[in-house]
Amino acid sequence: MSAATPTFELFYWPTIQGRGEFVRLVFEEAGLPYVDVARRPAGEGGGPGAIVRLLEDDTAGTPPFAPPVLRVGRLRLAQTALICRYVAAHGGLLPPAEDDWLRADQLMLTVMDRVAEVHNVHHPLASSLYYEDQQTEALRLAPIFIAERLPKALGYFEHVLSANAAGEEQVLVSDALSYVDLALFQLVDGLAYAFPNALAALAPQFPRVMALHAAVAERPRIAAYLASPRRLPFNEHGIFRHYPELDPPR
Amino acid sequence: MSAATPTFELFYWPTIQGRGEFVRLVFEEAGLPYVDVARRPAGEGGGPGAIVRLLEDDTAGTPPFAPPVLRVGRLRLAQTALICRYVAAHGGLLPPAEDDWLRADQLMLTVMDRVAEVHNVHHPLASSLYYEDQQTEALRLAPIFIAERLPKALGYFEHVLSANAAGEEQVLVSDALSYVDLALFQLVDGLAYAFPNALAALAPQFPRVMALHAAVAERPRIAAYLASPRRLPFNEHGIFRHYPELDPPR
Q1: Which chain B residues have a beta carbon less than 8 Å from that of A63?
Q2: Interface confidence (ipTM) of the complex
Q3: CA distance A15 to A237
């Protein structure tokens, strides 16, 4: 293992996209090899047990609060936005000008705040309760999310895309794709899964956001990834869950 | 205005501590002059209108999603964790070794995630609804927060403090106070206001966290700030709200 090609090990739950998916997309677009540790067989050090062991390892400095965690040599790094940025820096997916790094950081954290909001729709009370045990609350929250928060979020990113007239390609920062565009892709992709009716009704108002989503999906490495078994399907255990009762026909 | 002493302008709601308070604490401990723009009279460009004008200004690059926002010359920076880090870098409150910067970033984002959780206790459904309109849900959530999330959060930071045996002073990263210690102070201070009964019952299990809180409060600049009119009192419009029904006697 040379310093130029470190081994990147991602620790994230092996059966969901979740927050780990934001990291996977950066690896895939960058073409950086990575080990998705918990998706390896338990007998080879994988499985959810690998995550538990990592979280409980007290010998490696600041422990992480929760997955995803990236391990690179002696570094253990948690927090999705930080991991994505770290991988992006190694994979040529930071905006080229340093002045733009803070803009990208800001947008990345704003995407992740929206991700937390989406999760909150089906789990308004507690991650430790089943959806069914907080469905009454979710049914009250979902229409508010769809009427207020969803258009606010999409409108914000539409606004950012409009304000960034830097290049021909429509991206959030600078004039070339960066890791934050991948994050916005994943946010929209998840919303399309979880709230297809609401998103279809709103999409015409946010053409730049929808175009960015489509353009990312067509990038060769992303398209290959999405078609591969490495891309886990969305399901009702992750962040973006499709419960028809929360997304009635418009 | 020279490059060495930029004018720092903080834009945040003038009547609450909220997320802006995390930024104010970094300025105060660093001894960096700053303008708390919206707390100036409306006739002098202050008041909440200053925030609205800033959010709607399309001429300054990537627009912010929400306050707090820091303006420094042409830079507009949103996201509390990023602003705190930026001010800390100018004010000598980053850990000295670059290797520790990522640790601090990770902890700062973990504090801010906890802040969002605390806000969620009294607003489980929507920021746009009054507490009274989601009190039923809050009453269901609060005992779960107190039983599960609060001890998990405090236990995490206790663990980080234990694992960091770097110096005599008990801090989260490295061997001297950094901006993340100020953030943990504010989290604990807010919890002590919002959930005094729950925190008092839990405090003996988390002596390092409580000692850090006490030590930060006694630092000369922080003590002077807390005693000054610049420190807004906690109230029931911010993140940390004291609703007795959510924090019953233990």
Answers
A1: 156, 159-160, 163
A2: 0.96
A3: 8
Question: What residues of A are in contact with residue B178 (Cβ under 8 Å)?
Answer: none
End-to-end CA distance of chain A: 54
| Three-state DSSP class for residue A54 | helix
pLDDT at B12 (0 to 100): 98
**Cα dihedral sign, A42-A46-A51-A57:** positive
- pLDDT more than 90, % of chain B: 88
B122: closest chain A residue by CA = A125
Helix (H) or strand (E) run with residue A86 in it: helix A80-91
On chain B, the residues whose CB falls within 8 A of the CB of A141 are: 124-126
Look at A81 and B109 and tell me if their CB atoms are within 8 Å. Answer: yes
Quote the minimal CA–CA distance from A224 to chain B in Å.
31
Output the CATH code of domain B98-219: 1.20.1050.10
Which class is B8-91 in CATH? alpha beta
pLDDT at A74: 87
Instruction: List the domain boundaries for chain B.
Output: 8-91, 98-219
Residue A3 confidence (pLDDT) above 70:
no
With contacts defined as CB-CB under 8 Å, which chain A residues touch B63? 156, 159-160, 163
Chain A residues touching B120 at Cβ < 8 A? 120, 124
Q: Which residues in chain B have their CB less than 8 angstroms from residue A129's CB?
A: 144
Write down the architecture of domain A98-246 according to CATH. Answer: Up-down Bundle (1.20)
| Kind and range of the H or E run holding B215 | helix B207-218
Same CATH fold assignment for domains B8-91 and B98-219 = no
In the A/B pair of chains, how many CB contacts fall below 8 A?
113
Whole-model pTM over 0.90: yes
Contacting B with CB below 8 Å, chain A residues are 58, 61-65, 75, 77-79, 81-82, 86, 102-103, 105-107, 109-110, 113, 116, 120, 124-126, 128-129, 137, 140-141, 144-145, 148-149, 156, 159-160, 163-164, 172-173
Residue B216, pLDDT > 50, answer: yes
Identify the residue among B133, B140, B157 best suited for mutation to test binding to A, counting A beta carbons within 10 A and taking the highest. B140
The reply to whether residue B102 touches residue A86, judged by beta carbons under 8 angstroms, is yes
CA distance A67 to B27: 32
Asked whether B17 and B39 are in contact (CB, 8 A), the reply is: no
CA-to-CA distance for A166 and A161, rounded, in angstroms? Answer: 10
Unique residue bearing structure tokens 């009279």 = B41
Q: What is the pLDDT of residues B129-169, one digit of tens each?
A: 999 999 999 999 999 999 999 999 999 999 999 988 766 67
At B63, the pLDDT band (50, 70, 90 cuts) reads confident
